[in-house]
Specification:
By secondary structure, the chain is mostly helical. The protein is built from nine helices and two strands. A two-stranded antiparallel sheet has the order 1-2.
Length: about 190
């Protein structure tokens, strides 16, 4: 039950808090995209660039919660990629995080690229993969924890926890690791 609760409420947060609204998400997205490139064998670039599809290189969404963001997502959620040519695009500086920290987002991006999903779908799939890892950690932690399951569930359902778990940030992996570690210690 906790697994599905985290996924459902987290998915709602994912639509309310649009891509790029989470702090530093642009940097984490670019790192996940770099690692997706490595996973797919398309290559690697310097710290100021990464290889992206032409459609993905055009940043339309902004960090502010505007009606334009929600309208763009609504209008483009069902669109498939139009130009899948890979170009060297400007990117934020390399955050230096290891692959496993961005692995869920990188897998989501790679899967979206393999399936020729559009840019909006790519963003949401990459974010959802982090949420999926976090929800799995909550589920395993609640099975392992001998007491305090309600407290663990309450912590997992905090808005800031769900916001970070449902983003390209490596916080989803950190939260999952700390949660599992705490449950195994107790």
């Amino acid at each position: 039950m906790a697994f599905f609760s985290v996924l459902v409420v987290g998915a709602v947060f994912g639509f309310l808090i649009t891509p790029y609204m989470v702090p530093d998400e642009e940097t984490h997205l670019d790192m996940a995209y770099r690692y997706a490139d490595i996973l797919m064998g398309t290559g690697n670039t310097d710290d100021a660039h990464c290889l992206k599809r032409v459609d993905d290189s055009e940043k339309v969404l902004i960090s502010d919660p505007t009606l334009d963001n929600y309208r763009y997502i609504y209008e483009n959620m069902g669109k498939m990629v139009e130009n899948e040519e890979i170009i060297e695009a400007n990117a934020t500086a390399n955050s230096g995080a290891y692959l496993f920290m961005h692995l869920p987002g990188a897998i989501g991006i790679a899967l979206a690229r393999i399936l020729n999903l559009g840019s909006v779908q790519l963003l949401f799939l990459g974010r959802f993969m982090g949420l999926l890892v976090f929800a799995l950690a909550v589920f395993i932690g609640m099975k392992k924890l001998p007491f305090g399951k309600a407290t663990l569930f309450a912590l997992a359902m905090l808005p800031i926890t769900l916001q970070q778990a449902n983003s390209f940030s490596y916080d989803s992996i950190l939260f999952a690791a700390v949660l599992l570690f705490s449950c195994y210690i107790l």
